[in-house]
Amino acid sequence: MRQVKGVHYERERLELPDGDFVDLDWSKSALPESRNLVIVLHGLEGSSDRAYVRGMARVFNQDGWDAVALNFRGCSGELNRLPRSYHIGETGDVAYLIDTIIQRDYYQRIVLVGFSLGGNVVLRYLGERADNLPAIVKGGVAVSVPCHLPSANIAIDHWENYFYRRRFLRTLNAKLLAKAARFPDQIKVPEQFPRNFLEFDGYYTGPMHGFKSAEDYWQRNSSLDVLPQIVCPVLIINAADDTFLSAACFPVAQAEASATLFLATPRWGGHVGFVTDSPQGIYYSEQLARIFTAEKISSNPHR
Fold this sequence. Notes:
Elements: E1 10-15, E2 21-27, E3 36-41, H1 51-62, E4 66-71, H2 92-104, E5 109-115, H3 117-128, E6 137-143, H4 149-155, H5 162-182, H6 197-208, H7 214-221, E7 234-237, H8 252-257, E8 261-264, H9 284-297
Parallel strand pairs: 3-4, 3-5, 5-6, 6-7, 7-8
Antiparallel strand pairs: 1-2, 2-4
Helix pairs in contact: 1-9, 6-7
């Protein structure tokens, strides 16, 4: 129900090396010629138009940062061109976007902010590329992240998540049907449409993206495994009452053992919620991201 005002997008289509595309929505700061950029990644079946994306972009705009929201493949209102889609561990499109920004030679600092699925992508990107992370990338914030996918997919099947799970599957199955119509030789319409993520990821996401099964897909894309590799400051904000997350999605020990990984576990917040009665309309996750960027990322001498 949240309405976020003051964010004005300019859309750009980014052509990808494999012939596909992603749509970018840019929101520029009022500060002339800002050299700082935040890249915002939405969650499963979300888009740049989600209030949590707009809210984060607005806060960074207020602080003098430009923002660009990446719509994952097929999430900008138009089906993508290829049989494949996006997934929770796919970092190639983010990497290509960052390389494109570097080639344009304008921005001096980039911070990544991701929500849920997008948060996992942020952590995977920072961990996988730790040894050759572009110097322009200074850190990240990941909100409501299912760090351990096998157990998180058990949690999301609980009864209290039925409404949300049904909503996710409705749009995922609609896209599956559209892709089957466009690529009948590669994607078949199932006899019964998937009713949960085990069935959907086992039927489409896993096989289409090179994984043996849903379980293989989850195991190989959990960000929990790459957290020790991250070398830049990164903040995870996971609410204790998030019914999408399992106990393994709260990496307390990893954060305590790391100089760069920070973990916030507020008692309330739900999944990508963090509603705050702020006169400025700023939510808790946005305020935390703002403080963390100013204190841990912008002032970090090593990045």
